[in-house]
Amino acid sequence: MNDLIGFFDSGVGGISVLHEARRIMPNENYLFYGDNKHTPYGPRPLEEIRALSAAAIGILLERGVKAIVIACNTATSAYAEIVRAEHPELPIIGMEPALKPAHFARHGGKVIVLATETTLRLEKFNRLMARYGDDAIPVVGEGLVELVEGGKAQTPEAAAQVRELLKPYAGEQIDAVVLGCTHYPYLRNHVQAVFPEAKLFDGRDGTAQRLRSQLEVYGLRSDDTPGTVEYQTSGEPGAIVLMQKLMDWLDEERKIEP
Ligand code: DGL
Per-residue pLDDT tens for 138-156? Predict the structure, then answer.
């Protein structure tokens, strides 16, 4: 084991989570692995998502990481329980759509949960819906991951696709929108434009905080100065350039959206 924290996503989405982890733990060393060659995971069969997740996590394990963040709601739903059972010695942090806080933010209206079709279909989300889902509307974020992966998050095309997906609910009182996929925080301004009154929720902060507390519980916090970030992809080198660009974009976004 070494001092690296391994992050994994189907592509560049998990960068939104890594960004938050770096913000609260700048002295840690991070390895981010994006399976860009196989993104999106959402529309794939469960067994395929499991096999891809196993391969990606295997790459992190080979590097001897001290903890793993599955920075992907889809892979968490499909695979987190399995990999945790296989590696009880490691802190493995997963994600789920932030429906709980969104549920408590309602004031008479509804909550839209935007996520991949796999996340919305599997048991983990159904359990969450059973507890906090009265007045929640699950919506598959059709085409959104592809736009983000294509470097098009901040384009009129992406804004139009978000509008199209949310159009059926425009007449309703929507108090909150859950961005239940780690690719969606790059689209939050488009979502906010459709529902200016809604509060937006995503799992970035909660996941980074959970990582910090788990590292503390396991006695694995590092005080190296300064921390480093290494990016890896199964895809084209351009994916790494996009990861770095998104990190920069998030720096700017954080200045506006504390
Ligand atoms: N970023 C992933 C998530 O949080 C999944 C995107 C995909 O590959 O479909 O669900």
Answer: 999 999 999 999 999 999 9
- Residue 8: CB within 6 Å of ligand 1? no
CATH topology (fold) of 4-95+204-256: Rossmann fold (3.40.50)
- Which residue has a Cα nearest atom 9 of ligand 1? 42
Cβ of residue 12 lying under 6 Å from some atom of ligand 1: no
> Residue written as tokens 């391994």?
6
pLDDT exceeds cutoff 60 at 1: no
- Give the Cα separation of 250 and 169 in Å (integer): 28
Q: Which amino acid is at 204?
A: R
Distance 223 CA to ligand 1 centre (A): 31
Residue labelled with tokens 């296989």: 86
List every span in the chain annotated with CATH 3.40.50.1860: 4-95+204-256, 99-201
Pocket lining: 234 vs ligand 1, CB cutoff 6 Å: no
pLDDT digits (tens, 9 = 90+) for 53-110: 999 999 999 999 999 999 999 999 999 999 999 999 999 999 999 999 999 999 999 9
pTM value surpassing 0.85: yes
Q: Would you say the CB of residue 38 lies under 6 angstroms from ligand 1?
A: no
**Candidate CATH numbers 2.60.40.10, 3.10.129.10, 3.40.50.740, 3.40.50.1860; the one for domain 99-201:** 3.40.50.1860
Strands ordered across the beta sheet of 29-34: 92-93, 67-70, 4-9, 29-34, 229-233
Cα separation, 14 vs 67, whole angstroms: 15
Quick check: 11 pLDDT over 90? yes
